[in-house]
Design goal:
single chain; alpha+beta; de novo design (two linked rop proteins); binds zinc ion
């Protein structure tokens, strides 16, 4: 048995019993964990903040070797990202970010860079001034999360022959091949979509850019829509399912 203290972002919660709930956190030191909040349904006021979704807290929990469900003992709110509470579009985007973290991580698999990326994305979306700005934060998060999870698609060279791509009217992108295909090789994959070359260039840039620069970036609506379409196609192929939040975001 060990008493553990860490920084944690609330991803999800679900009922456990008539009085208690299970909270899913993404933490700095332990990756994604599930924690039992005993009495949280009975003493709602006491548990505010840590049970509010998409909040940043310092938590203390008891870790036992026999179970992966830990017990929450203390918590303190650091930031509740007020912008997310005041704007439904922001809340939906941030909820999608949390859903992605839940889908692309294993339990108890620590990844400090992903924690930092998640924190930056929630801060950025919360503080952004409008839909174009929050969209860039979302795309940057998606591309950099795919990179950290080892799923970054190849966007510069043809995945089949490795020749550098000629960016013409459209580029073929294949989820099963894991990236772009040149004109010669595209017919080798039945499963592919056509994407605007600008969308490939922008997505590739966002995958590697410094998060501090994102606030100043804007993406044309047509390119944003095309990257969105490409990522939905690619992510649904990787996870073999549709994500719950897709119907709430454009
Ligand atoms: Zn090729």
């Amino acid at each position: 048995m060990a008493l553990c203290k860490t920084l944690a972002i609330t991803l999800k919660r679900s009922d456990y019993s008539d009085t208690s709930q299970i909270v899913s956190f993404y933490t700095l030191d332990y990756g994604r964990i599930h924690v039992l909040a005993k009495g949280s349904k009975r003493y709602k006021k006491k548990f505010t903040s840590v049970l509010d979704l998409l909040t940043y807290n310092e938590i203390v929990f008891i870790k036992r070797d026999i179970t992966r469900l830990y017990t929450l003992t203390e918590w303190e709110l650091i930031d509740n990202f007020p912008g997310l509470r005041e704007n439904l579009d922001k809340f939906y985007l941030a909820s999608y970010v949390a859903e992605l973290v839940g889908e692309f991580t294993e339990e108890n698999d620590r990844n400090e860079k992903l924690f930092e990326l998640l924190l930056n994305a929630l801060r950025g979306i919360s503080l952004s001034a409008g839909i174009p700005a929050m969209s860039v934060y979302l795309l940057t998060f998606e591309m950099q999360m795919l990179k950290l999870a080892g799923y970054l698609p190849e966007m510069i060279r043809c995945v089949n022959c490795e020749n550098e791509l000629q960016l013409k009217r459209y580029v073929s992108f294949s989820a099963s091949k894991g990236g772009v295909l040149c004109e010669k090789c595209q017919n080798q994959s039945q499963e592919r979509i056509a994407v605007l070359p600008g969308a490939i260039t922008a997505a590739s840039y966002l995958a590697n850019c410094d998060f501090q620069r994102v606030a100043r970036l804007r993406i044309q609506p047509s390119l944003y829509a095309d990257i969105r379409r490409m990522l939905k196609y690619y992510i649904s192929f990787i996870l073999n399912k549709e994500l719950r939040m897709w119907k709430y975001i454009s």
